[in-house]
Amino acid sequence: MTPQDRTQELIRQVNNLVAFLDLDDKEEDISGRLSSSISPSFRGRREEKTGS
């Protein structure tokens, strides 16, 4: 797989993710959905790092 192929595949995956999240065209709602699905695991990792 060439770097170009990898880039195209990544772009395709990102576009699929955006299309999946962009169900009702509200940016605030999309970012809210993203942060609610991503933040818990990030917060957990951050607390582990700062706690030690």
Keyword list:
52 residues, mainly alpha, 0% strand, elongated
Compose a concise summary of this entry.
The chain has 52 residues and is mostly helical. It has helices spanning 3-21, 27-51.
Q: Could you characterize the architecture of this molecule?
A:
- This protein has 52 residues and is mainly alpha-helical.
- It has one domain (3-51).
- It is built from two helices and no strands.
- The protein has helices spanning 3-21, 27-51.
- The relative contact order is 0.07.
- The mean pLDDT is 71.
Radius of gyration: 16 Å
What is the averaged pLDDT score? 71
Query: Could you give the count of β-strands?
Result: 0
N-C termini distance: 41 Å
What count of domains describes the coordinates? 1
Estimate the strand proportion.
Answer: under 5%
Which stretches are low in confidence, meaning pLDDT under 50 for 5 or more residues running? none
Helix percentage range: over 70%
> Would you list the SSEs in sequence order as H and E?
HH
Q: In DSSP terms, counting alpha (H) and pi (I) runs of 4 or more, how many helices?
A: 2
The class by helix and strand makeup works out as mainly alpha
Oligomeric status: single chain
CA-based shape: elongated
The biggest sheet, with number of strands, parallel, antiparallel or mixed sense and barrel status, is: none
Please outline the helices and strands:
Elements: H1 3-21, H2 27-51
